[in-house]
Amino acid sequence: MLRYFLRATFLLAAGAFLSAASPRCALRAASLELSPSARAVIDSIYSGDLRAGLEGAHRLQQERPDHPLGYLLEAEALWWRIWCTSAEFKYGMTYPRHRARLAADQRYLDLAAKVSALAAQATASSGESAETRFYSGMGNALAARLYGLRNEGRNTARFGVRAREDLLRAIALDPNLADADFGVGLYNYYADTLSAAARVLRFFMGIPGGNKQEGIRQLEHAIAEAALTPPEARFYLAINLHNYDQQYQRALDVAGPLVEKYPSNPLFQLILGDLYAKRGRTAPAAEHYRAAAALPVSDPECHARIHELARASLAAIGAPAEDAPIRPN
Prior knowledge:
mainly alpha
């Protein structure tokens, strides 16, 4: 029970690529901006081309080694690989529920620490701003979401609470920073989905509570107004409406634009297929499952996992597995 509570405490970090500010600007801007090169990296990541995303993130690091941007985007690309390779199809839903402690994940944690450290350096040299606190919060959130997936309770709680504090401070400094609403919104949502027993544990551990409806409002605000977080806010709002609230049609309405904008992302195809299946619409569900299996994926392990997930999803709705095309990587 406690492990699920602590994971929920920081699946808030699930959107932590968020803050790609222009590398031409110091960390003093009142609102976040995207440079064309940063936007291209983010589009590569969300399109499912993690190799291109990593290459672009490395270029940004070379151009501005003292800015958190490139490190944050590299971590985000690595996160989607972690998400993909950890996912399983269970209870009619593709979702990562646990990950072992792997040496290969240390780079991700190092990047999380780098993001927070660079934000702290910017604060020390130029003073506190909404943006520096936002980056600091996202660095902590990056760490917390992996610890949550690995069921490392103390680390999840420690970094999750730090991230929440940073993001709330960012909002206090700039109430119009809708990207920070994304992170706080996820925290509010997850913290309010806990069982009664888990809420008692939360109280004794000194972890702040949340409000699901406020969390949904904040996520919707991020979708509508944020500069950087709308795709990720859509993804996790749809996942939450599916997993916790069983509002399948509403989740479909939220997730649909993701597939429209990023049809080459097989994970988005799978979550849309899951939602159609829950609505009893097996034909479009099968269509999206097969689309996921047919898409090229640059990472071999993720490529293999997508095919496993597509086969399991098709089998769950009674569609023949042999109808799922297997495209060579």
